[in-house]
Amino acid sequence: GENVEQHPSTLSVQEGDSAVIKCTYSDSASNYFPWYKQELGKGPQLIIDIRSNVGEKKDQRIAVTLNKTAKHFSLHITETQPEDSAVYFCAAIGASVLSGGYNKLIFGAGTRLAVHP
Amino acid sequence: DAGITQSPRHKVTETGTPVTLRCHQTENHRYMYWYRQDPGHGLRLIHYSYGVKDTDKGEVSDGYSVSRSKTEDFLLTLESATSSQTSVYFCAISKMGLAGGVSTDTQYFGPGTRLTVL
C-alpha cells in the first residue's frame, strides 16, 4: 500500500544552522506533498506544500524540493531559530480516489526538531 | 486555525464506557476527517466524511463510529472505550481544489482532544 517514510526522527541543530528533513513515498502517482509543523499541545499547521508539476518552492526561510524520479521530497529550513523547534510531518496524497472523491493523505511518522540557542 | 473547534479538549474515562468527541467548523467545508496521533505512528485516519450523512472508514476504524447530521459538526464515538484508544484525536477539514492542473487536498487541523482511557 501507499507509504511515506520520514527521516530523521529527531534532529538537533544550533541556532542559525540549516535543518533538512527527508521523506520518501511509494506511490509514483502521488501528486501533492504538504508539510506540517506541530508545536507542543497544538494541532499540525500547514507550513508549505508542493505539487508534482513543480521541483522546488520557497517561502522565506523554508523551502521544499521534490524529486519525482527518486520519489523523495525534502524540507529545508535555513537560519534556524528557537521558535522553529517543533515536530514536522511530511505527507503525500495518492492518486487513488476513494468514496466521495477523497484522495487519501498519508503522513510520515514525524521529525522532532530542536534548535538550541 | 481554519475555524475548527474540538470538544472536549481533555477527557479521562474508564474502559468500557462510550465516549463522543465533537468537531465543529464554521466555514462550511464539505470534507471532514478524524485522525488519531500516537508516538511513532504520525497521524492515522479513523473516518472521514464527504457530506452530510456521507461517511467512510479510514485505516484504523475498528472500535469507532462517526456521524454527520449537519455540515458543521462531525462526531466521533468510541462505542466501548479501551486502553488502546488512549491517544490524541485531531479533526481536520479540507478545502478541496484544483490548482495548476493538479488536484490538491489541503487539510487543516483542529487543536486536538487528549483522551485517556483508564
Short summary of the structure?
With 117 residues, chain A is mainly β. Chain A has strands at 4-7, 10-14, 19-25, 32-38, 45-51, 56-59, 62-67, 72-77, 86-97, 103-107, 111-116. Chain A is globular and about 45 Å long.
Written description of the protein model:
The complex is a heterodimer of chains A (about 120) and B (about 120). In chain A, about 0% of the residues lie in helices and about 60% in strands. Chain A is an all-beta fold. In chain A, the strands form 2 sheets. In chain A, strands 2, 4, 5, 9, 10 and 11 form a 6-stranded mixed beta sheet that branches. A 5-stranded antiparallel beta sheet of chain A has the order 1-3-8-7-6, with no helix packed on it. The model of chain A has no long low-confidence stretch (mean pLDDT about 90). Chain B is built from no helices and 13 strands. In chain B, the strands form 3 sheets. In chain B, strands 2, 4, 5, 6, 9, 12 and 13 form a 7-stranded mixed beta sheet that branches. Chain B has a 4-stranded antiparallel beta sheet with strand order 1-3-8-7, with no helix packed on it. Chain B has a two-stranded antiparallel ribbon with strand order 10-11. The radius of gyration of chain B is 14 Å and the shape is globular. The model of chain B has no long low-confidence stretch (mean pLDDT about 90). Classes of the chains: A mainly beta (about 120), B mainly beta (about 120). The interface of A and B includes residues 31, 43, 45, 99 and 103 of A.
